[in-house]
């Protein structure tokens, strides 16, 4: 069967008008996934790995090269930290493209579509500490997109090591330790909104129902880079006009002249939906992102 498909594909390349090849001629993507899977299987056979791999319903093949005794596997919304070596298949040869080492390991949220589907799926099948090889047809990798040094419609291999998987609570605790925020003056109960005072003012306390003017710098805890900077944000305290529950509740703990840092989980920010940039298709704030806001109360 494989021989017949190869012959038909060759005739198509030669330009013969065989009906069986017409879709391939008109649409180069037609049939590529099946070819990728066959190429992956050929690679596994050629490298004596045919009895070691496991397959998923998506078409991915994977091998756990170094098992782990950990019982922790990534869950949707958690931040995974991992390293990888990326290669693409050229018949039965894996050609290396790039890599990420422990010195600059990637940290990305899992299960929300910010990485290629096969890598996301594969990481969720792993346990912390494991090393695995993920064999992906193009529809689970880069499809027909042009990626440096990878031909279109290529099957790829991610040789990946899963270093950590952190839920939001752990991310927040790690951030607090790294930034010397060892105790909180105010924690708003079950809301988990932590308020850290960095400068105390002497003005009146912010009152619900009154307009308040604040300077805001908002950062995604994962990257610690500002995405929301406003020098004079004016809103009615307690009315949630900014659409960020943590600010609305946290500001009621402040006085005019106070400068404070709010640290809170995604449930008190942009939640599971995040904040997308509709013009680019990327996220300003990814789903399940804990946030840090620096707030200075200017007037009320």
Topology:
Layout: H1 2-14, H2 22-26, H3 32-46, E1 54-55, E2 61-66, E3 79-90, E4 93-100, E5 106-109, H4 117-124, E6 131-136, E7 156-166, H5 168-178, E8 186-187, E9 194-199, E10 211-220, E11 226-236, H6 245-250, E12 259-264, E13 275-276, E14 283-285, E15 291-299
Antiparallel strand pairs: 1-2, 2-6, 3-4, 3-5, 3-7, 6-7, 8-9, 9-12, 10-11, 10-15, 12-15, 13-14
Describe the 3D structure.
- The chain is 19% helix and 33% strand.
- The chain contains six helices and 15 strands.
- Strands 1, 2, 3, 4, 5, 6 and 7 form a seven-stranded antiparallel beta sheet that branches.
- A hairpin with a 6-residue loop joins strand 8 (186-187) and strand 9.
- Mean pLDDT is 86; it is low at 1-25.
What key phrases describe this protein's structure?
19% helix, Chitinase A, domain 3, 7-stranded antiparallel sheet, alpha+beta, 15 strands, 6-stranded antiparallel sheet
**If you compute it from the alpha carbons, what radius of gyration comes out, rounded to the nearest whole angstrom?**
25 Å
H/E element string?
HHHEEEEEHEEHEEEEHEEEE
The CATH topology of the largest domain is: Chitinase A, domain 3
Question: What is the architecture of the largest domain at the second tier of CATH?
Answer: Roll
CATH class of the largest domain: Alpha Beta
* DSSP summary, beta strand count: 15
Average of the residue pLDDT scores: 86
Parts with pLDDT < 50 across at least 5 consecutive residues: 1-25
Shape descriptor: elongated
β-sheet strand percentage: 25-35%
Helix content: 10-25%
Structural class assignment: alpha+beta
- Provide a count of the helices: 6
């Amino acid at each position: 069967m494989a021989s017949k498909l190869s012959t038909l594909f060759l005739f198509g390349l030669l330009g013969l008008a065989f009906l069986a090849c017409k879709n391939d001629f008109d649409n180069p993507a037609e049939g590529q996934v099946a070819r990728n899977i066959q190429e992956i299987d050929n690679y596994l056979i050629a490298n004596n790995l045919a009895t070691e791999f496991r397959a998923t319903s998506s078409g991915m093949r994977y091998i756990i090269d170094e098992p782990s005794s950990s019982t922790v596997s990534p869950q949707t919304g958690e931040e995974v930290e991992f390293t990888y070596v990326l290669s693409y298949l050229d018949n039965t040869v894996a050609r290396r493209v790039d890599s990420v080492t422990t010195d600059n390991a990637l940290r990305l949220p899992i299960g929300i579509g910010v990485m290629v589907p096969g890598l996301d799926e594969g990481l969720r099948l792993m346990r912390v500490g494991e090393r695995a090889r993920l064999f992906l047809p193009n529809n689970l990798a880069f499809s027909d997109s042009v990626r440096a040094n990878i031909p279109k419609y290529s099957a790829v291999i991610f040789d990946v090591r899963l270093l950590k998987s952190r839920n939001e609570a752990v991310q927040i605790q790690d951030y607090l330790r790294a930034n010397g925020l060892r105790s909180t003056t105010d924690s708003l109960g079950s809301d988990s909104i932590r308020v850290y005072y960095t400068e105390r003012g002497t003005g009146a306390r912010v009152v619900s129902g009154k307009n308040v003017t604040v300077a805001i710098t908002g950062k995604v805890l994962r990257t610690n880079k500002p995405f929301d900077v406003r020098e004079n944000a004016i809103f009615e305290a307690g009315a949630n006009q900014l659409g960020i529950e943590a600010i609305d509740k946290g500001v009621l703990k402040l006085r005019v002249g106070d400068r404070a840092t709010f640290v809170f989980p995604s449930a008190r920010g942009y939640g599971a939906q995040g904040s997308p940039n509709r013009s680019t298709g990327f996220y300003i704030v990814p789903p399940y992102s804990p946030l840090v806001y620096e707030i200075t109360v200017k007037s009320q």
